[in-house]
Amino acid sequence: MKDEQKISAFDAEMMQRCIQLAQRAAGKTTPNPLVGSVIVKDGKILGEGFHPGVGQPHAEVFALQAAGEEAKGATVYVNLEPCNHYGRTPPCSEALIKAEIAKVVTGMVDPDPRVAGGGIKKLEDAGIEVIVGVEETACRQLNEAFIHRINYQQPFGILKYAMTLDGKIAATTGHSAWVTGKASRHLVHQVRSTCDAVIIGGNTVRKDNPNLTTHGVTKHNPLRVVMSRSLDLPTECNLWQTDIAPTLIFTQINSNPVLQKKLTNKGVEIIEVTQLTPKIAMEHLYQKELSKILWECGGTLAASAIADGTIQKVMAFIAPKIIGGTSAPSPVGDLGFSKMTEALQLKQITTQVINSDILIEGYLSINNQS
């Protein structure tokens, strides 16, 4: 198990390489984690691999295939504990034992109860040396959505918004194109490419007519989700072009049946619920085996999502602009707080300058979980 003296700079470097490999499948593996693997002997990389998606071989298997016979007596690096259970694919721990690997260096224990240390034990019982905890913080961040989904039976929610220096997401007229610059918008497209779904409310559909795609950053486009209780939506808009990316609408029972029929004919999936809330929507997305959800909604829905415990992370883009307007919309609506001491405090803050914009990222306390 973890021994600080045994962890070298080379171990850390190889684990970072595992993370880089794993990221190649970002947005494509749900409900599985992102995993990369590297096989090394005498300081030389013999094989690499990553898990490309559900039902396909795991990272270690691809790395073993690339290494071939040379894998015998080598060290395997992998950012997540090798699995030891039969799921859609055979257990990786058995493949490593069969290949006569000498040592396994892993970033973290798998939180999945079907694994949770079992893979490590199986390897150690077979006489393989195992080191756990190399670059663990980075490994956990890579799979934060997977970990959250396992621990809370709910997808990981990210609230993203762009606002002016005076805290507005649009002018008093509702006009919002564009608050931030091109570089920030490009980053958002990259973030979308790592997500399983993007959620907006009906108002955003009506005012912005968004595409909610990755705009060619990658081939992967997330599921586009609209929450609209009354289904008061336009008959023509970009989101109804389901040949570009799939679209799902959450609405309440018997709302606007005429539009429902038209949209269903266009390939839009519609889910009717008795009472539409962010929590209910996330429960459905969990059942669809989604892990990472990006909320790009307006202030009213954002406040409901926070209050419902469906937001774990915030990405706030701030542009050096002042628009003014007492009725201009802000990124988060009424949370029912009357004192500054009630304000939700973000943790693990990071800041990034993107040309003239600033991105602040942070996590809401787990105590805000419903």
Features:
370 residues, 28% helix, 22% strand, elongated
- Give the count of helical stretches: 11
Largest sheet: 9 strands, mixed
Radius of gyration: 23 Å
List low-confidence stretches: 1-5
Which word captures the global form? elongated
pLDDT averaged over residues: 93
Order of helices and strands: HEEHEHEHEHHEHEHEEHEHEHEEE
Biggest sheet strand order reads 10-9-8-7-11-6-12-14-13
How far the N terminus sits from the C terminus, by CA atoms, comes to 35 Å
**Helix proportion range:** 25-40%
**Strand fraction band?**
15-25%
Total E-strand runs:
14
Could you say which structural class the secondary elements and strand pairing correspond to?
A: alpha/beta
Task: Outline the structure in words.
This protein has 370 residues and is of the alpha/beta class. The protein has eleven helices and 14 strands. The chain has helices spanning 9-23, 59-67, 92-98, 118-125, 136-142, 144-152, 182-193, 202-208, 257-265, 278-287, 299-307; strands at residues 36-41, 44-50, 75-78, 103-106, 129-132, 156-164, 197-201, 223-227, 247-252, 269-273, 292-295, 313-319, 346-354, 357-364. The strands form two sheets. Strands 10-9-8-7-11-6-12-14-13 form a nine-stranded mixed beta sheet, sandwiched between helices. A five-stranded mixed beta sheet has the order 2-1-3-4-5, with helices on both faces. Helix 4 links the parallel strand 4 and strand 5. Helix 3 (92-98) packs parallel to helix 4. It is elongated. It starts with 8 loop residues before the first helix and ends in a 6-residue tail after the last strand. Mean pLDDT is 93; it is low at 1-5.
